[in-house]
Amino acid sequence: MKHFTRILATATLVAASAFAVHADEFRLGLITPPPHIWTKAAEAFGAELSEKSGGAHSVGVFPSRQLGNEAEMLQQLQTGALDMAFMTVAEVSNRATDLGSFYAPYLANDIAHAGRILRSDTAAALLEPLPAQVGVVGLGYGMAGLRQIVSRGDVSSSADLAGKKLRITPFTPILDFYNALGAAPTPMPLPAVYDALANGQVDAIDMDAELIWVLKYYEHADTIIQSDHMMFPMVGLVSAKVWAGLSDDDRAMIGELMAKHVDSTIDSYIEKEAGWLEQIEGTGKTYTKVDASFFGDAIDQWNTIWSEKAASLEKLRAVAAETE
Ligand code: BEZ
């Protein structure tokens, strides 16, 4: 009998540890391709988590939308079918409106200023409601570069974009911005963009310098407008269901390391943005630098809409003023 009890206890232990090992093979999804800064940061996070946990935890990184688009991945995080993601704040803002304030046109004067805003306590506080609101835990911000416009044909003023099909990332703040400008904003996920611009399905795209350069979006365009009109934050997420099942020690380790690696992307963009823009300018395409005045009253319209939609807007403006 004793022997049987011991076998049962051993079997239970084996089953429990098999489950623990399985549970600790976290899956992390992204939409960015393997060479992208976000994907590299996700891999570095996985490597450090594995090292610091003595191999108890590992992270399988699934780039390029292998687990679905961001809306699908967010659903999977909610149900616990996916453990982790590095995701655009854009997608999360579709469920947590206060995050939309990050996209106030010209909230940041430049990319380093965008970094300082994202590293503020006010920005961190905007992640606190996510477990209850969205079913995810936001552990820290990263970012991509500031937004630029790449267009087929000549664009010498914003009137040249009127009625033009202009690809946007699918989220409301940017939709509001280009609607105010009089363009025809066309929501489209990242992987569809190159072909859409190449075959004329869209006339222009809203994009950052890294991808314009690395994925060669300029190849099928005539005009690059360096407008720097919005920041583009990213957030490191863990499923709230998965988080609830972790020990305090694991939460502390995962929280610290994920925050560190998403934050590292901020330094990467601050360091590299100017170089990508120089290379894009060197392609011989028409390259125009513009400021807020290019967008006429579209910015005021956006501010009116969003000061009603999101109480966070005034708070982030205060941070922007303090960190200038
Ligand atoms: C975009 O939708 O433009 C985008 C998405 C993820 C990273 C960078 C850009």
Question: What's the topology here?
Answer:
Elements: H1 2-23, E1 25-29, H2 37-52, E2 58-62, H3 70-79, E3 84-88, H4 89-93, H5 111-118, H6 121-125, H7 130-134, E4 136-144, E5 147-151, E6 165-168, H8 172-181, E7 184-187, H9 193-198, E8 204-208, H10 209-214, E9 223-226, E10 232-239, H11 240-244, H12 248-281, E11 286-289, H13 298-309, H14 312-322
Parallel strand pairs: 1-2, 1-3, 6-7, 6-8, 9-11
Antiparallel strand pairs: 3-10, 4-10, 5-8, 5-9
The structure holds benzoic acid (BEZ).
Text of the CATH class of the largest domain: Alpha Beta
Mean pLDDT: 93
Helix content: 40-55%
Strand content: 15-25%
Indicate how many domains the architecture comprises: 2
Specify the number of helices. 14
What Rg is obtained from the alpha carbons, in whole angstroms? 22 Å
The oligomeric state of the chains shown is: single chain
Principal-axes geometry comes out as: globular
Number of strands: 11
By CATH, the topology of the largest domain is D-Maltodextrin-Binding Protein, domain 2
Q: Which CATH-level-2 architecture of the largest domain?
A: 3-Layer(aba) Sandwich
Ranges where pLDDT stays below 50 over 5 or more residues in a row are 1-23
Strand order of the largest sheet: 7-6-8-5-9-11
Bound molecules: benzoic acid
Q: CA-to-CA gap between the ends?
A: 74 Å
The helix-and-strand class reads alpha/beta
* CATH H-level homologous superfamily name of the largest domain: Bacterial extracellular solute-binding protein, family 7
